[in-house]
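Researcher: Please translate sequence to structure tokens.
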Amino acid sequence: MKSMYKKIAVAFCLAALMGLAGCGPKDNRITLDYTAVGSAVPCAQTVGVAPIVDLRTDKMLGHNESVAFRPDGRGVDQWVQEALIAEFTASGCQAGAVQGQELPRYVVDGEVHAARLVTEGMDHALDLDLRLTLLEGERVVLKKTYVGHWEQMIFPASRAKSEALFDSSLSELLGTAVSDFITAMQP
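Model: Translation complete:
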């Protein structure tokens, strides 16, 4: 009987240690949200945001030692397009998704080349690589690559903290990009 209690106690201790070490079951879904920061440069333009092309070969969002992270809900391409619209709007522009034949004076399109989170224990590293183009009709006004690498120690690791890292990192990149575009649209 004592032996059985010892086995149960050891099993509970191992389960608790695994949970504290991050070895327990993982939720591998990441919801991609966006918080607009707004530009200090005023905007009075109408901007259309074309669908963004996801050129990543691996459509997962990254991995840790045992699990690949996948987007929950919308994909990275939709996330970036909706984030651009939100950022332009927060900066005072009239912005929306490009639809149909009638285009506004300015249109932004782009590509996602990287959106990858790698976790190892408490260490989280996120890489984003976007190539964005501002067009006025068929003329390229500005074409630029926005690349970022962020590292954070997160304890305890959680889905919410990983999502917050994606959110704040994209906000930093797009805050800069939209400021660049608004400056380029100035007369």
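Researcher: Any highlights?
Model: The chain has one domain: 28-185.
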